[in-house]
Amino acid sequence: MRISRLMIVLVGFGAIVALGLTALPWTLGAGSSEAEQGAMHNCPQAGRWAISVWDGPDGTETGQALATCGAVPVAAAYYLDPQTGGWSRWFAGRPEMSTLSTLASMQGVLALGAVGGPPPTPTPTSSATSTPAAAGDVVLVSSNAFTTTSSFLIDGESRRMHIVGEVRNESATPRSAGKVRTRIYDAANNVIGSRWNYAFDTIIMPGRTTAFAVTYPSLIYFSDETNHFPEGWTRYEITLSPRDPYESEDEPVDITVENVQITEGGLKVTGNAVNASSKTVGMYDVDVYVIYYRADGTILNAGQDSVVNDQPLGPGESAPFDIAFASDEPVDFSSYVVQAYAEAE
């Protein structure tokens, strides 16, 4: 329900923007002789959207025009072409993602005011445990935490904290990592954040390594979790809850990957997932993920495509996958592994 409601809001918002961007330049144009030349009008506040209008020469570089907003820098801007109905975009410091290169006189854009970054914090450390923390079970191999920013706000917050970890089943039987809970602490050792997720592999076969990823805040969360950026965090803790598979859980089938391509410096991973088993896999049951490693073998980042097959995948059949990372996520890897997971119908 949370996702459906969001989609409805965005659709309605798009209709309002379409009206605003086509009508507003005409309204301001009637009184343009009174406006200051070479400036953006109605600039956004920090963390807020506004329909801003460029009152200056045609063909002005978008970044140059938006820079006139002054005290509050513009983080992102969108323009809806009234002729084609297509969107163009501009992101501060990200020319590779920007398609709105110039602005015309009296052109209106939907602009987002930048939010100031978090104050410096001590280098975080990992205090990672597992339950039970014993050899011969599912264990935490390594972990990493990092922060990013996004033009998409969640409850007014542009910052994200990400925790990724690598786990391995060192037992002789199939096991699950259970709930993977993360706790965030400040310098006074107070818990300021708590979330949980599951490993990419629901059931981990003996000797197999998989990963998990947790983000603060997120669009989807549970009632027993916090969902805010953990301001002032200094360290984090990871707790595993290894268990045997439930009777309702099937052992995973053999899904292989082929034609793997890593492009855009690691931000994009594509290829095909192949059902190498003799069983049929249900629709949307194939997950493909990549784990990036540092030179010392510890995990750097991990990401997945959890909507791979929109149809049941029979023996020998394949489906394409596409894993994407944000441009400010760490992807300067030394090595990597791409794996797939699925259970049979």
Secondary structure blueprint with pairings:
Elements: H1 2-29, E1 39-41, E2 49-55, E3 60-61, H2 62-66, E4 74-80, E5 87-91, E6 102-103, E7 107-113, E8 125-126, E9 138-154, E10 157-169, E11 180-186, E12 191-197, E13 209-216, E14 233-239, E15 255-263, E16 268-275, E17 287-293, E18 299-305, E19 318-324, E20 335-341
Can you characterise this structure?
The chain has 345 residues and is mainly β. It is built from two helices and 20 strands. It is globular and about 70 Å long.
Number of self-contained structural domains: 3
Our count of helices gives 2
Q: Based on the structure given, which CATH architecture of the largest domain is correct?
A: Sandwich
Which structural category fits the helices and strands? mainly beta
Q: Biggest sheet, in brief?
A: 5 strands, antiparallel
The SSE string, one letter per element, is HEEEHEEEEEEEEEEEEEEEEE
Question: What topology, given as strand order, has the largest sheet?
Answer: 1-2-7-4-5
Query: Helical amount among residues, as a percent range?
Result: under 10%
Distance between the termini: 26 Å
Mean pLDDT: 83
What labels would you give this structure?
disordered N terminus, mainly beta, 3 domains, Immunoglobulin-like, 345 residues, globular, four-stranded mixed β-sheet
